[in-house]
Amino acid sequence: MSRLQTRFADLKEQNRAALVTFITAGDPAYDTSLAILKGLPKAGADVIELGMPFTDPMADGPAIQLANIRALDAKQNLAKTLQMVREFRVEDTTTPLVLMGYYNPIHNYGVERFIAEARESGVDGLIVVDLPPEHNNELCDPAQEAGLDFIRLTTPTTDDNRLPTVLNGSSGFVYYVSVAGVTGAGAATIEHVKEAVTRLRRHTDLPISIGFGIRTPDQAAAIARVAEGVVVGSALIDQIANAQSADQAVSGVLKLCAELSEGVRKARVS
Amino acid sequence: MSQTETQYRNGPDVRGMFGAFGGRYVAETLMPLILDLNREYEIAKQDPAFLKELAYFQRDYVGRPSPLYFAERLTEHCGGAKIYLKREELNHTGAHKINNCIGQILLARRMGKKRIIAETGAGMHGVATATVAARFGLECVIYMGTTDIERQQANVFRMKLLGATVIPVVAGTGTLKDAMNEALRDWVTNVDSTFYLIGTVAGPHPYPAMVRDFQAVIGKETREQMQAQEGRLPDSLVACIGGGSNAMGLFHPFLDDTSVRIIGVEAAGHGIETGKHAASLNGGVPGVLHGNRTFLLQDNDGQIIDAHSISAGLDYPGIGPEHAWLHDIGRVEYTSVTDDEALTAFHQCCRLEGIIPALETAHALAEVFKRAPTLPKDHLMVVNLSGRGDKDMQTVMHHMDLSKQEKH
Ligand SMILES: Cc1ncc(COP(=O)(O)O)c(C=O)c1O
C-alpha cells in the first residue's frame, strides 16, 4: 500500500478526516520552510501538500501568488524542493507528501528525471494544476507507472459527463475544489459540499478531500464531518506573510495547524 | 494546389495540437468551458447565418476589405522589391484586432454570455473588445498591466469612454503576461456568466485556431487583391509577431503556396544577446504557459522570464503554438528587430508614406527596410500594416527626447 492509502485507511479506522496542509516550498526561505515542513506532522497535519513555486500561478489568489514570489526571490527551485523532501524523510517515513504546482518547471526539468528523483526523495503523489486528463500521457501515466499517485482536481464545473474522464487515472485521493475560483477566495456552503461529495461518491471509491476557502477550525470541522480530507492552504500561508521573523513564521503556521487539527479531530466525536 | 490538398493548413488535431505545440493545459475548472466553447465554435463556423452576420459586421462596422496599397515611395526608397501594405490600420479602432473581436463577440452572444473579459498589452485589443462589447450591450472588463497603462494612456481612456472597466495588474512586470494571468483568474471565478475574449492566436485550444480563422480574412483578401492588381501571388509576406495573430491572419491562406516566402518578425528589444527582448522563437525554448505548449522565454528552472520590447503589443514571453510549429518545420522564417531599428522604421514610414504605423508594425517595416533593397524589382512583397501609431505618440516623444539629450 502507498503511504496515502495507508494513511487514509488508518484514519477511516479512527473515524476521522485527514487534515491536509499546503505550504509553498522555500517560502519565505529554504531553512524556515524546511522547519515548518518538519513541524507539520507533530502539529497534526495528516497529509502534506508542498507547492513547487512558479512565476505564473494562474489558478492561485494573492496569498499563494505572494508565497511563490517570496520563494522564488529566495532562489527556490525544483531541485531544492526535492532536497527538502529528502531532508523531511530523514525523520518522517509515514506522512504522505504530495507535490503540487504547475507543469512548466517539471517540463523544463525533464519529466523522466523529475519522476525518478521525486520517487527517490520520498514524494508520494503529484497534483499538477494545468495538466488535465487530456494530457495524461505526458506526466500522469509515467508517474503512476513509477508508483507515484496522481491526484486530480475536480470542480463545480466538472459535471457528471466529465467526471469519469477526470477520475480515470486518479489515485491517492480526489481533491474537490469547492468553489469555482482561485485559491484563497470565498468558501462554499456546507450544503454545496455535501451535494458534491454525494455526487463524487457515485463515481469513485477514493477518499475525497475538500479545499479552497477553508480557514478556521470550525470550518475545518464542518468539512471533516462530510469528507475524508480537509485542505487548508492560504490561511497557513498568511501566517508566513504576516510574521515578523522566521521563528514567528514557523510558530504561527504550526499553531494554526494544531488548532485546525483539533477541529478536525473533534468533528465526528460530538 | 486545390483547397482540399493541404500540407500546412490542416492543424490543429482534435487535441488542439500543431505538431508538438498547442493543447489544452488549463485548470480543471476551465476545461468544461473550453470544451463547450470548442463545440459552439465548430457549429458556428459551419452555420451560414453566423457567417453571414460576421461578413456583415466585417464590411459595415469594421470597414473591410482593407486596401492592399502599393507603397510607391517606400518601394523607391528601398530600390528593390515592390512593396505593398495591407492596410489593417484603416479598420475601425485602428488595428487588425477587431477582426477577431467581432467574430468572438458574435460567438459570445450566441452562447448567451453577458460579460466579456480580455487582456491587453498595447491596449489595441482592449479597445477593440470594449468597442464590440459596447456595440452589443455587454459588460466589459479589461485587464492591463500597470507598465502598459503608463505607456498607453490614450488607449486606457478610450476603453473607459467605451464603457469598459480597466483593471490594473501590478503582478510581475505589469505587462501582457500578467494581464493574461489575471484574466484567467477572473474566468475561473466567473465561469457561468463570462466569455474570455483572447486577443491573439495563443491560449488553450480552440483559441489559437479560432482567432486564426477570424484573422485569416487578412490573407484571403490579400490573395484576391494581389491577383487583381498583379495577376499573381506575392513572393513574400512580412508581419510582426506578438502572440502572432496579425501574422497568422496574413500567412495562413498562403501556407500551402510554397513559392511564397513567409517572414515573421519578433521583437529583439535591446538585442537578443542582452536578454532584454521578446523573441520567444529566437531566444526561447519549448514549455507550457497560458494553456498551450509553445516556445517561451524561461530560465534554467522553468520560470518565465519577463519580456522586453519598446512596443507593448509585442511584450510577451510566448508565441502562438501554430507559429512554434511553423518554425519547427521551417515553413516560416522568424527573424527579429530591435527597439532602435523599429523606431527608425517608424520615422521612415511616417515621412515616406504619410502613414504613422504602430510600434508593433514598425518591427515588420524594419525587416522590410533590411530585405527589400536586396530583392529584384519584380519581387512582390506584402507587409501587414497591423495598426496605426496614434497610441504610441507618448513613447515615441519620450525616445526622441532621450536621443536629443544623448546628442548634447
Ligand atoms: C498594431 C498591433 N500589431 C501587432 C500586435 C501584436 O499582436 P499579434 O502578434 O497578435 O498580431 C498588436 C498587439 O497589441 C498591435 O496592437
TrEMBL record, chain A:
<dbReference type="InterPro" id="IPR002028">
    <property type="entry name" value="Trp_synthase_suA"/>
</dbReference>
<comment type="pathway">
    <text>Amino-acid biosynthesis; L-tryptophan biosynthesis; L-tryptophan from chorismate: step 5/5.</text>
</comment>
<dbReference type="InterPro" id="IPR013785">
    <property type="entry name" value="Aldolase_TIM"/>
</dbReference>
<comment type="similarity">
    <text>Belongs to the TrpA family.</text>
</comment>
<keyword id="KW-0456">Lyase</keyword>
<dbReference type="Pfam" id="PF00290">
    <property type="entry name" value="Trp_syntA"/>
</dbReference>
<comment type="subunit">
    <text>Tetramer of two alpha and two beta chains.</text>
</comment>
<feature type="active site" description="Proton acceptor">
    <location>
        <position position="49"/>
    </location>
</feature>
<dbReference type="InterPro" id="IPR018204">
    <property type="entry name" value="Trp_synthase_alpha_AS"/>
</dbReference>
<dbReference type="GO" id="GO:0004834">
    <property type="term" value="F:tryptophan synthase activity"/>
</dbReference>
<keyword id="KW-0057">Aromatic amino acid biosynthesis</keyword>
<keyword id="KW-0028">Amino-acid biosynthesis</keyword>
<dbReference type="GO" id="GO:0005829">
    <property type="term" value="C:cytosol"/>
</dbReference>
<protein>
    <recommendedName>
        <fullName>Tryptophan synthase alpha chain</fullName>
        <ecNumber>4.2.1.20</ecNumber>
    </recommendedName>
</protein>
<feature type="active site" description="Proton acceptor">
    <location>
        <position position="60"/>
    </location>
</feature>
<comment type="function">
    <text>The alpha subunit is responsible for the aldol cleavage of indoleglycerol phosphate to indole and glyceraldehyde 3-phosphate.</text>
</comment>
<dbReference type="InterPro" id="IPR011060">
    <property type="entry name" value="RibuloseP-bd_barrel"/>
</dbReference>
<keyword id="KW-0822">Tryptophan biosynthesis</keyword>
Automatic annotation (TrEMBL), chain B:
<dbReference type="InterPro" id="IPR006653">
    <property type="entry name" value="Trp_synth_b_CS"/>
</dbReference>
<keyword id="KW-0456">Lyase</keyword>
<feature type="modified residue" description="N6-(pyridoxal phosphate)lysine">
    <location>
        <position position="97"/>
    </location>
</feature>
<comment type="subunit">
    <text>Tetramer of two alpha and two beta chains.</text>
</comment>
<dbReference type="InterPro" id="IPR006654">
    <property type="entry name" value="Trp_synth_beta"/>
</dbReference>
<dbReference type="InterPro" id="IPR023026">
    <property type="entry name" value="Trp_synth_beta/beta-like"/>
</dbReference>
<dbReference type="Pfam" id="PF00291">
    <property type="entry name" value="PALP"/>
</dbReference>
<comment type="pathway">
    <text>Amino-acid biosynthesis; L-tryptophan biosynthesis; L-tryptophan from chorismate: step 5/5.</text>
</comment>
<keyword id="KW-0057">Aromatic amino acid biosynthesis</keyword>
<keyword id="KW-0822">Tryptophan biosynthesis</keyword>
<protein>
    <recommendedName>
        <fullName>Tryptophan synthase beta chain</fullName>
        <ecNumber>4.2.1.20</ecNumber>
    </recommendedName>
</protein>
<dbReference type="GO" id="GO:0004834">
    <property type="term" value="F:tryptophan synthase activity"/>
</dbReference>
<dbReference type="InterPro" id="IPR001926">
    <property type="entry name" value="TrpB-like_PALP"/>
</dbReference>
<keyword id="KW-0028">Amino-acid biosynthesis</keyword>
<comment type="similarity">
    <text>Belongs to the TrpB family.</text>
</comment>
<keyword id="KW-0663">Pyridoxal phosphate</keyword>
<dbReference type="InterPro" id="IPR036052">
    <property type="entry name" value="TrpB-like_PALP_sf"/>
</dbReference>
<comment type="function">
    <text>The beta subunit is responsible for the synthesis of L-tryptophan from indole and L-serine.</text>
</comment>
<dbReference type="GO" id="GO:0005737">
    <property type="term" value="C:cytoplasm"/>
</dbReference>
<feature type="domain" description="Tryptophan synthase beta chain-like PALP">
    <location>
        <begin position="63"/>
        <end position="387"/>
    </location>
</feature>
